[in-house]
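User: For a benchmark we're assembling, each entry needs the component sequences followed by a predicted structure for the full assembly. Here are entry 17's components. Please fill in the structure.
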Amino acid sequence: MSLPWTEKYRPRRVSEVVGNEEAKKQFEEWIRGWERGSPTHKAALLVGPPGTGKTSLVLAYANETGYDVVEVNASDERSGERLKSIVGESVRQSTLGGTRRRMILLDEVDGIAGREASGGVATISSLLKSTKIPIIMVANDPWSQRLAPLREGALMIKFNKLRQREIVNHLKKILSAEKISLDEGVLEEIARRSEGDMRSAINDAQLLVSSRVEPEALLEIVGQRDRQKSSFTVLGEIFSSTSAAMGRNAVQGADMEIEDIMLWVYDNIFNQIHTPSALAEVLKLLADADLNYSRVKKFQRWELLRYVAPVLGAAPGIVKNLYGEKGARFEFPTHIRFMQQTREQRQNIQSGLAKISVKCGLSRVKAATEVLPFIRAMIRKGETGIIKYFSLTEEEVAAIIGPERSVAPQARPAAKAAPAAQKRVTRAQRPRGARRSL
Amino acid sequence: MKSGLALQETIPWIEKYRPRALAQIIDQEAVVNSLKTIVSTRSVPHMLFTGPPGVGKTATAHAFASDLFGERYVEDGHFMEINASDERGIDVIREKVKGFARTIPIGGVGFKILLLDEADQLTAEAQHAFRRVMEQFSATCRFILAANYSNRIIEPIQSRCAVFRFRPIELEHISKAVERIARGEGLQIAGSAVEALYKVTEGDLRKCINLLQAASTYSRKIDEALVYQVAGVVWAGEVRRLLEQAIAGKMEEVRNSLRTILYVNGASERDLISQIYRDIFYLSIPEKNKLELLSLLGEVDFRISQGANPEIQLMMFLAHLYSASKPGK
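Assistant: Structure for entry 17:
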């Protein structure tokens, strides 16, 4: 076989990258931010199923606008160190001037989840803060819990599966460049089987052409790829389990970490089960599964894992069925959204707490529980002198008093004294569903 | 609030009225007397201060150092405070101790004092490592460890320390402290208000003073009702609302409130659990069900300390609170 078509026809320009127009636009806007010297985020995280053009987009952009791309495979154990040296080196080179622009492409970041994961993730996430050159991370599964530190502070750009029509049209272009023609129906079948994965469609088409067998025969041989079950499929199985065995199989057959299944299930029970007593039952069982799983982790007692899977996998379905709950659409874990939405507020509270803990000689945790509630009450009441004493910034004050407004009418004169605090209240981030007032 | 003061700093009263010398420490007579003797002889042992929060352990350590070294005990490098729960691991603590205890300042008493606050936050392994640090630097440094519970401090450390037990502060001492502040701040405070302060803060003077200051932003005239009102705003506010949402069966709201408390406000699970514990007694649910809830909360507390997921475990508890609040059960 000659050069693989996937390489030979890799897009050279951004306009040649098929589909995902929204993602392309987001990516270009982000990298232009870097070029202007004011990136909104230091890193971008491109996420989506295989063969949807994530890496192609990066390489096409680099080729078109003149970047050197340093590729680091994140699942390599030493990637953290390697990345460190590249980032350091790039900084030195850029200060010397004269070299081509560089960007770092960090592939398979969800691959670091195993083994030495935490160290690698920590190194990478600290580099994301300090880097002077753009870092692009690529992942298939953006929701893996262990990647949480990498998600923070990175611009997440989502890629979707390509449409069958987009794949067929692209295959036609390649075939015409190769001066070969294939039956439209065969192309459609290849595209359908690819399930939106351009890479696999191109590979199948090339195999079909080069092996010169009858298309029908080949399509039988090639067969369909085993697609990873999506998290939603796993959820569907878990919430329709009617037996312990079904639940066990659903969890064991899922290509997800137990933590992630736990998170997805826990977050979705609230839109699947509405009767409070049913929720109490299912949460009791999930909490037991969580307890057993914590023992697995803490004591490295892997043999205890078998007590986790059936309970985690079957409790939701069985209880849902018992109470005749109808359920609703599954959703991405709200926990992840909650953490993203409250990120700024959390950071501001932490920096405020750092100041309080220094001034009062308390630990941050103690400052949070022993001092912060009073400061919050005093500021809400219009006592601004305390803000000055702790040198709290406007943002810290807004985060500390939270979305609740100062309520008491006699606080009005003070409201004048605290224009900053008052103004920020309305702009403060409000976690989804948080209540508005006392 | 007086206008015109708007641009001035308001010093937290816990700082403003912090004791500057052993003689100003409230209550704790036995402890203070022994420490005064130690100051006069200048033969200072390693010490372990134990007792509930807000009874003056840290303040006493500072006052002791001030009596021993003079008012500039920190600036002149005689004294350093490390908080165990803020440091990342024993290695960081060891490095800090090393940097501090390497030299002896001129004009001192031949050694320095290092206060390790919240020492019971260190794991047993870390405490063993810290014990070695104590031995290594005992020629140039004396250690004061402060902890809520002495039984969470490993025996080898306890045996190397003089142990001072701080008692919860009694009402009459709390009211003396409150009256002194009221005089200083020009507050009018009712006798029943002092009792209310004492009751809701359970002899924790820090909380008591903080609450008094928060109440003073509502009115210069402080009565019993105001104390309870402000206490409600300050603490019970969030946790009580969480429990009420659970009793009303609004589980999605419960989840969001729980997340805000756990992840945004920076409080520890342990404090949330303690607050829930206190609130259970006041809930209007059948008494027998309270007992079951208390046992369940104990289970949740233990599970979380063993590494289980706090949100899932607490959510489980809160969902059971709903069932327990129904009399039919």
